[in-house]
Amino acid sequence: MAEDAPKETPPDTAAVTGRNPVRTRQAIIEAATEEFSTLGLGGARIDAIAARAGLNKRLLYYYFGNKEALFQAVLERAYENIRSAEHGLQLDEVDPVEAIRRLVSFTWHYYIQHPEFITLLNSENLHQASHLKKSQRIRELNSPLIDTLHRVLERGRAEGLFRAGVDPLQLYISIAGLSFFYLSNRHTLSAVFGRDLRQPKAEAERLSHMTELVLGYLLR
Amino acid sequence: MAEDAPKETPPDTAAVTGRNPVRTRQAIIEAATEEFSTLGLGGARIDAIAARAGLNKRLLYYYFGNKEALFQAVLERAYENIRSAEHGLQLDEVDPVEAIRRLVSFTWHYYIQHPEFITLLNSENLHQASHLKKSQRIRELNSPLIDTLHRVLERGRAEGLFRAGVDPLQLYISIAGLSFFYLSNRHTLSAVFGRDLRQPKAEAERLSHMTELVLGYLLR
Amino acid sequence: MAEDAPKETPPDTAAVTGRNPVRTRQAIIEAATEEFSTLGLGGARIDAIAARAGLNKRLLYYYFGNKEALFQAVLERAYENIRSAEHGLQLDEVDPVEAIRRLVSFTWHYYIQHPEFITLLNSENLHQASHLKKSQRIRELNSPLIDTLHRVLERGRAEGLFRAGVDPLQLYISIAGLSFFYLSNRHTLSAVFGRDLRQPKAEAERLSHMTELVLGYLLR
Amino acid sequence: MAEDAPKETPPDTAAVTGRNPVRTRQAIIEAATEEFSTLGLGGARIDAIAARAGLNKRLLYYYFGNKEALFQAVLERAYENIRSAEHGLQLDEVDPVEAIRRLVSFTWHYYIQHPEFITLLNSENLHQASHLKKSQRIRELNSPLIDTLHRVLERGRAEGLFRAGVDPLQLYISIAGLSFFYLSNRHTLSAVFGRDLRQPKAEAERLSHMTELVLGYLLR
DNA sequence: GATGAATGAGCGTTCATTCAT
DNA sequence: TATGAATGAACGCTCATTCAT
Q: Where is each HTH tetR-type domain found (chains A, B, C, D) (predicted)?
């Protein structure tokens, strides 16, 4: 071996397998998100997460301590992501009817594009939000959506478009629930009612039904 | 730990729980329902179910074969129960508005009184309804609710009360989802929005909001 | 195969590998005693104990729950054994000098023949007797030795042979300690003092030294 | 758990404990002494030692190579300490009876004040003095005590005070064992005999018993 | 119909140790 | 001299399941 040759500075790909804590952390979170959202907290396997991430299992403990803490980190990331997406909504800048449409549509499409968010929330609720309650991070990420929706409803009422007396939190939960339940439960619903709710056509129908339902209620 | 320990030589009291297959079966299903609904399919433990039922673990295998089949039996029982409750609704015998009120209220209260139904469905959906699809029994238990709702909507439309063009399945999913999502996700929602949705007052508000929402949409 | 032939009642060796809980329990205790006494509580390996016993590792948990409980069971057995051996001493039936000789000699030879007793006690003391304190069994096994020794000393004093004012517990601890320390520490002592204390001749010298020491003190 | 977690980017305070090899080495030895004497060789954890010392785990390897070598260093330090204390005894300068008293008392108090010495020796004996045998350092530290005791016994005999024919090594082992066994085993002894041997009063009684025992034997 | 005894596979976690800088 | 990142092996323990009676 050319023993005197200067060691060639390794190209920036050294991080793929190691020595890049940020990337390693990220890889673990991603692999864990897949595993937890597919199999639930109880069904997920630490070995499988390590294998998915292509990392030594010991590293998961080095970075996160234990399975539950890793689950919490996955949840935190999931909330960071949706909060970040909510930022682009800008409901204050369109007319109230359009704002409601946009909110319904955003919620629907976000859940469709992030099915892991649904199953992670279901797992967390199965455990009575115990990880979320421990999380400082999630408390910091409080959503501005309820306040924004409050202003939208108020504008709509002021313009004589919307009915009065609508609790923005109740409405928000309804809008979220209309999408969430359909998507979360479509496997059982499809089986029970013998209609495949996972088809694109069914999904389009769902969105228009939900929009009609919410606006049909709000508009006086 | 102790659940597994060898027992002291027991006196000849094999008849304590009795050689009563029906009762034994029932005891297993109930214990399994608690365990699965509390911990999910992956988190449930066969040992724990046997302990809850006060029965020898081997009996679970004698009656149900394995864990997944037991889960399926639990699901089947859950569907039998809700179908049986739905029987008392008699929506065809009241006026359309009252029928809708009754359906919303029934759904809400059934979920409240059977929280295990919610978590079992979430578990089953996590596994993409695989057990449900295998179940002959659940297919036999098809719900008459969509047909009934169809007739209610038709009557409402004929009387000039309700809007036209409402898909009864979509509406049913919405009614179910409004309750289901709130109850299923109230732990995370409470934590995220800092408002305790598990309090009686919050629950009363939810029911009136849902009723208003659905009727506000339907009534023209 | 002679399908109608009566199944030959299995000879009494069916218990070697299984289905004999008493023998299984015994085999585990024996294997665990070897392992714990050789490597200490922290150094002992559950896998190794199972292998030594020729049993499935799971069985150790079935019978004893966990490592610490198994260690406790080993300790209890060790105390049962020494108590049982003490029973044969019958110090009340010989003259006081012979009784003291016999006690010193018994203690010495018991420790020599049961080296595991020494290391087990050392391990238990390292952990501040935490397992022993938990053990109901050991409390039941209280030794009659202190009372017996008290009577021996009293007899010796009455006969004008022994000095007065000897606390039997202190003397018992001294007699035990003279043997125990030598045997427990002979590896380091041999190394430090460059004299092999594990040789038969050294052992014989030790016994006569101890007997002389104790009787030299007692006799007036 | 947290001991292993990745640290937040630390400010440039590498000098907190300082680039002081002597002090670092000392800190490691002290932390390791606590850990090994508390938990034994098998129960001690490298991580815990590093945490106790407030140092990076890697440093322990830098200075000592591996766990066993560190244990050996701890042992060597323990022997250095006791040899150093023995230096102050000056048994040759007092009368024989006083010399024996002093030796018994010194041994007793040294063990009381250095409980780690007892458990370290027990650990080393569990492993059959394997580390001690490897240690050049400990061989260099040979104790003058046996020779000194030999002279004391000889003086006593010459003065007609002490009996003849006493092996100084046997006597030394007896003196050490009387203290060592009591202190090493007081947890189990207290539990078994239902008398708290760790109380100051019990300790005072022990010292006077031992002195009486040894002198009662020696004095003719 | 019912049970205590037994098992192979795999779980989450931790170990002492090494790498790269 | 010092450290954060990384690892293979193994740990104590538990899993769903089956055997033998």
A: 22-82
